[in-house]
Amino acid sequence: MAIPIRISPLCRWAGRTLSSQSAGHRREVSLSAKRRFICTSTGNHLQFRLDERTAHSSLDLFKKDTGIIYRMLGLDPSQVQDDPERFREWAVVLGDKTISSGRHYWEVTVKKSQEFRLGVAEALMSRDECVGTSSSSWVFGYAQRKWFAMTGSKVVPVTLVGKPDRVGILLDYDARFVGLVDIEKPRIIHTLAARFTAPVCPAFGLWDGEILTHSGLEEPDGLK
């Protein structure tokens, strides 16, 4: 088993969106923002779209808000509607459903990207932080042709994955884990233990190309 290691944050700036806020002035999303998420999901067959209000200005949504494209020279932050839900410094977007119990499964087409992160994050995580380096997020990242399991700046290499065109994400809120799924077998490739203390939602980081989400799916047989 790979031993968790601590490294400097792997997130990189989106290219042209340095926030004017200093680290000492980082703030959490307001409670009013929490109420703006469409609904809370507690059952299976989670159906979600991407929440444009959370999308960093370098990210464009497409296909009825189920896909994400990274634009290195995206919108000038001053031209994006100010919203407390929007990620200000990192190329991150959240799903529009919060989850507080149950077991949920979705898939992501990743064949057109070489750098991304997939998983879950607390709905109220700081919009000045990045998924994977925040302790309020649990994701699987792909960069430099390698996979990693990431949370709170702890990074564990994930091997024997390759670069499939499409992968699955399995969230078991009550059992406290997130799994990366090989949809061809199907099997869970790696699990990431999580101590959930608040509602979470699907979370995505993107620094190259595009990805497409697929929700409302049944969990494949045989996953444990």
Mind explaining what this structure looks like?
This protein is mainly beta and 224 residues long. It contains one helix and 16 strands. The chain has one helix spanning 31-34; strands at residues 5-6, 39-41, 59-62, 67-70, 92-94, 97-99, 103-109, 116-122, 137-143, 146-151, 154-158, 166-172, 177-182, 187-193, 200-206, 210-214. Strands 1-11-10-9-8-15-5 form a seven-stranded antiparallel β-sheet, with no helix packed on it. The longest helix has 4 residues, at 31-34. It is globular. Mean pLDDT is 83; it is low at 1-9 and 13-39. This is SPRY domain containing 4.
Provide the domain count: 1
Number of strands: 16
The secondary-structure class comes to mainly beta
Per the CATH scheme, the topology name is Jelly Rolls
Strand line-up of the largest beta sheet: 1-11-10-9-8-15-5
> At the first level of CATH, what is the class?
Mainly Beta
Give a quick rundown of the structure.
Pfam families: PRY, SPRY. With 224 residues, the chain is an all-beta fold.
Top keywords for this entry?
224 residues; Jelly Rolls; 16 strands; disordered N terminus; globular; 1 helix; mainly beta; seven-stranded antiparallel beta sheet
Secondary-structure topology with pairs:
Layout (H helix, E strand, L loop, with lengths): L4 E2 L24 H4 L4 E3 L17 E4 L4 E4 L21 E3 L2 E3 L3 E7 L6 E7 L14 E7 L2 E6 L2 E5 L7 E7 L4 E6 L4 E7 L6 E7 L3 E5 L10
